[in-house]
Amino acid sequence: MFARLKFLARLLYWPLKPLVQCKIVATNTQTGTSDQPLFYITKVSSATDLATLMRVCRQLGLPAPDDEVQLGHVRLPRTLYLENPKTLSGHQHPSTALQIGQQMLQAHLDPAQNAQLIPVSINWGRAPGKEASVKAIIGEQAAPNWLQKLFIVLISGRHTLVQFSNPLSLREMTTKYGTSEDTAHKLLRLARFQFYRQQLAATGPRQPDRGALFNALLGSASVRQAIEEEAAQKQIPPTAARQEALLLLEEIAADQRESTVRVGDRFLRWLFSKLYTGIQIRNNEQVRDLAQRGHEIVYLPCHRSHMDYLLLSYVIYQQGLASPHIAAGINLNFWPIGKLFRRGGAFFIRRSFSGNKLYSTVFREYLTQLFRKGYAVKYYSEGGRSRTGRLLQPKTGMLAMTIQAMLRGIDRPVTIVPVYLGYEHVMEVGTYLRELKGLNKTKESAFGILKAATKLRNYGFGFVNFGEPLSVNQYLQQQVPDWKSAIDPLEPAKPEWLNPLVADLAHQVMLRINQSAAVNSVNLLATCLLSAPQQVMPEQQLLTQMSLYRRLLQQVPYHPNVSFADGEVSDWLRHAQRLQKVQIDQDNFGALVRFAPHDQVLMSYYRSNISHLFMIPAILATALLRQQSTATQLLQLCQQLQPLLEQELFLQPQHLQNYVEGILLFLQQEKLIYVEQAGAEYHLSLQSCAQLELLATLADGMLQRHAMVLQLIADSEPMERDELEQKAHQLALRLLTLHGLDAPEFHDKKLFVTLINALKDQGYLHVDAEHKLRPAARFSALEAAVYQLLPATVSASIRQIGASAAS
User: Fold this and answer.
1) β pairing state of 673-675 and 461-466
2) Farthest-apart Cα atoms in the chain, separation
3) What is the DSSP letter of 209?
4) In whole angstroms, what is the distance from residue 654 CA to residue 416 CA?
5) How far is 194 from 596, CA to CA, in rounded Å?
6) Vertex 606, ends 605 and 607: CA angle to 5°?
7) Cβ–Cβ < 8 Å for 370, 391
8) Which residues make Cβ contacts (< 8 Å) with residue 767, sequence separation at least 6?
9) Which of 415, 613, 649 shows the shortest CA–CA distance to 510?
10) Contact yes or no for 554/511 (Cβ under 8 A)
11) End-to-end alpha-carbon separation of the chain, Å?
12) Number of other CB atoms surrounding residue 18 within 10 Å
């Protein structure tokens, strides 16, 4: 049987080449060769499948699947099949997989044997399928006959997905379960279950008829009640209110089409090959494992660019996972982009639900249905794109609705996957500073897209780092052990614990996004050059500083998920030069590196992408330069400031004390500081001042903002929060003028809002009976600590302007 199959597969090997194009998903464990015998198991005995597997294995450098393997005293085919294809008459012969599987297990009675069995899933096409479709009759048969397989190859051959699972150790199976027929059955069941999970993860659930879905949503108890209330409030007939709800569903709901996703994938592959030098992806295997284990996945990426919508969806699809449904702002629902996005899986959301109960109810019910049916969902917890490069404070509305959907009863585990998206060039960055300065946001339009398309060029690398997943079920169990008692399958429950829990959950997600930051050539260059006087440095000094920073981040990691671009720092500099981010001039003394004139201010955006990685080291460097300090005093300073930094920068090292001690040890090893005896004050090395001053500069903006707010509170009469926010922002703009600064974050009023909230939450401020902010007992110690870290000129300016504002 295997000899005949092998003959047909080799016969079809070359004729199939123009008809079959494969996307291969393989873990690192399948690359290279193994000393132990290697076997494959697939779903169906098919010459077409075997020929495809032969080509893929040759590409990956794996053993040929059409070989036979000597295992102990028996010679077995390398590839097993769970079932045989049906004949044209519909008859199906039993597979020999059970007998071969038992022979393989019995061969492991010899302790020297340890063969590996790799399940390989070959999916012809990625369509989830619909009822009464042609593919339901032809393309989705579990074991199609040769005629059906011919149509499958012709229709879906160029969209084939080949997935390799982690190897199963037959030695472990034998040791744990023995070599009986029951063990062989168990082995085949494991493979069959793995194939099912892989296919579901790759295609997603079957797509319902759109009209039937709308009728089901309109017939739900919560929507019917909202329709009745809408009719009573507006004094209109219930049929008119129902029609209004239907129009809202048309506005909101996605209309995902597999053909659009497939064409979009091919278009984006071409587009990204033109726009980016490459796309670097990290920690993706854990997401695939979650999907294949049946988790409901909610992707929560940071939001830096409109390109985020396309890049993350493309990467997810390329990883062999179903394309998610995407929450997109209603501003993107314009012709023709809106229709394309909708067919690509986008559902549209208004900026505000306030005062429109019918809309909020319809939207919540639609989101609940997505979760119940098992669709992966993606939304941006920040609510909008970051204009400064830092993470924004999260909006909790969508996350609250996700928890409420769970309280309606979802029988699958829900897992949030934070995603860090990074770029070496953000297309919209030129508009961000203008918007922060008060100019109106440019409205999206088809003309705007065409105009942007004329400016496309090489944007360097894109970075997609999947963060540490967060199980919502486990989180709820830890925070609210009796949360399941609030489950109501009919109504969206809103228990008292919901809002504070959602706020904390959103904060945890943002922390995990920042824990997965990507350090690259542009943001590290921006970190170095923006600290230099006149933003220019000799090339060798720049490379030395970049190397110092990279060693710091690698030897004292903020978090293991932080990633680094490939190559040496000298390669990073040349790469940035090719991207026209820096220019290198020569004079009689050597090369000077500076930013291109039009990029000098904008580069602070990229520095802000990784500013949290350097903030604690920068504060330590500042303290070492400004005052003599012991390790204990430096740790106390960091412990005092870290809660405020966490609110503003989502900065939370895994263990602050170990982190601080590691940084100080690193600075000693680099001979930048030294200590004569344990517990004594640190001293600076003569050659260290320049490098430490550059490092310390990275904390200047944050410390100056803190000092502005603290000075206003100390010198002024108690004021309401809005007034304090306004005065702090005005003070920042004055400081920019006096000291020749033009940092985008100083124009961002939200940073002052965040800081004032953090001061209140940490007990440095309290609200009196008149709703005005007053300093608390701990306030003076914080004010003194911050001012000790400021340069004398800046400190004097802040005090003088603060006193003027108070008077």
Assistant:
1) unpaired
2) 96
3) P
4) 20
5) 53
6) 95
7) no
8) 760, 773, 774
9) 649
10) no
11) 95
12) 9
Residue type, 740: G
Token digits for 34?
A: 């193994």
User: Is the separation of the CB atoms in 572 and 527 below 8 Å?
Assistant: no
Region 692-710 average pLDDT:
90
Q: What distance in Å separates the CA atoms of residue 405 and residue 367, rounded to the nearest whole number? A: 8
What one-character DSSP code corresponds to residue 167?
P
CB of 202 closer than 8 Å to CB of 322: yes
CA dist 772 and 504 (Å) reads 26
Say how many C-beta atoms besides its own lie within 10 A of residue 102's C-beta. 18
- Asked whether 343 and 323 are in contact (CB, 8 A), the reply is no
CATH number 1.10.10 is the correct assignment for the domain at 610-698: yes
Residue 550 has pLDDT above 90, yes or no: yes
Cα–Cα distances in angstroms (integers) from residue 446 to residues 305, 454, 799, in the given order: 17, 13, 50
- pLDDT at 749 > cutoff 50: yes
- Which backbone phi and psi does 221 adopt, to 5 degrees? -60, -45
Residue whose pair of structure tokens reads 């063969």 in the numeric block: 115
Query: Residue with structure tokens 């669709």?
Result: 375
Q: Which ranges of 515-558 does DSSP label H, i.e. alpha helix? A: 521-529, 539-555
Contacts of residue 143, defined as CB under 8 A and 6 or more positions apart, other chains included, come to 43, 44, 83, 84, 85, 86, 92
Over residues 257-268, the mean pLDDT reads: 90
Q: Give rounded-to-5 percent helix, strand, coil for the chain.
A: 55, 15, 30
| Mean pLDDT score, 523-540 | 92
Per-domain residue ranges for the chain? 2-203, 212-514, 518-606, 610-698, 700-806
Alpha-carbon span 342 to 345, nearest angstrom: 5
Q: pLDDT for 410-423, tens place per residue?
A: 878 999 999 999 99
Contact 284, 26 (CB under 8 A): no
Two tokens at 581? 């981010």
Query: CA 570, CA 527: separation in Å to the nearest integer?
Result: 16
Report how far residue 436's alpha carbon sits from residue 421's, in angstroms, rounded to the nearest whole number: 22
CATH code, residues 518-606: 1.10.10
The identity of residue 93, as a single letter, is: H
**117 has a pLDDT exceeding 50:** yes
> Which of 254, 268, 376 shows the shortest CA–CA distance to 314?
268
Element (DSSP H or E) covering residue 76? strand 74-77
User: What confidence tens digit (pLDDT) does each residue in 485-495 have?
Assistant: 877 776 667 88
Encoded amino acid at 116, one letter: Q
**Residues 460/632, Cβ–Cβ less than 8 Å:** no
- Name the CATH architecture for the domain at 212-514: 3-Layer(aba) Sandwich (3.40)
CA–CA separation, 220 and 365 (whole Å): 8
Angle between helices 170-177 and 181-203 (to 10 degrees): 130
The radius of gyration computed from the CA coordinates of the chain, to the nearest angstrom, equals: 30
Q: Is 776 helix (H, G, I), strand (E, B) or coil?
A: coil
- Whether residue 558 contacts residue 588, with contact meaning beta carbons closer than 8 Å, is answered with no
Residue 450 confidence (pLDDT) above 70: no
| 610-698 has the same fold as 212-514 | no
Give residue for tokens 């569903």.
249
DSSP notation for 337-356: HHHHHHHTTEEEE-S--TT-
Tokens for 513, please give them: 């996004």
The CATH code belonging to domain 700-806 is 1.10.10
Measured in residues, the chain has a length of 807
